[in-house]
Give the backbone structure.
Amino acid sequence: MNFCIFRDLKRESYGQTLDIQRNLFQNAISHKQEGKVPQNHLISVEHNHVYTFGKHAEKSNLLVNSGFLENIGAEVFEIERGGDITYHGPGQLVVYPIFDIEQMRIGLKKFVSNIEEAIIKTLAEYGITAGIIPDRIGVWIDIGLKTERKIAAIGIKSSRYVTMHGLALNVNTDLNMFNHIVPCGIVNKGVTSMEKELNDKIDIFEVNKKLIHHFQHIFELKNYEQ
């Protein structure tokens, strides 16, 4: 079992949450350098409108100018995770695991696989069948069909086996916000949400509880705090 502190930030700006992440991440690395066992943290949150560029993102994948972004109240951040550009906003559940995966005795590939499994099992509880595509990180629906579409994105950073950043699951997300970017740099692939798939508004707090429950089980977390 792995000790973990869970924090539900409800609605918080991306910048504030990023500061929290970075502080926890740096503290964990410092503890490891001192020979101490760092704490694991699992943060869930909804953000205000924001577009984030990963470290290898193509700037041209943002399809609108700064004036347009200002008009819709969207911020832009360049961050240290992998991947290209993505969107976060109201109705989207974002989860950040700041984990020492060395302590958990898993590698980065297994870490990502576990996250994907937690999302897939959560969606299954709502009758949504989803899966993964071997050469693409994230969770998809209708894999291999012309209607193939993405419902959850994953982007992470790891140093000394400590992770930060994480996943974004579209629950009641305004999918029009994805029209202003090439999501994750992937052309001609749709984006969807739980609300769109089920044609009904979904209780995001319930989804959060279910997703965290699957994280607990899959990553063998204990001392879960709500």
Residues 124 and 219 are 18 Å apart (CA to CA).
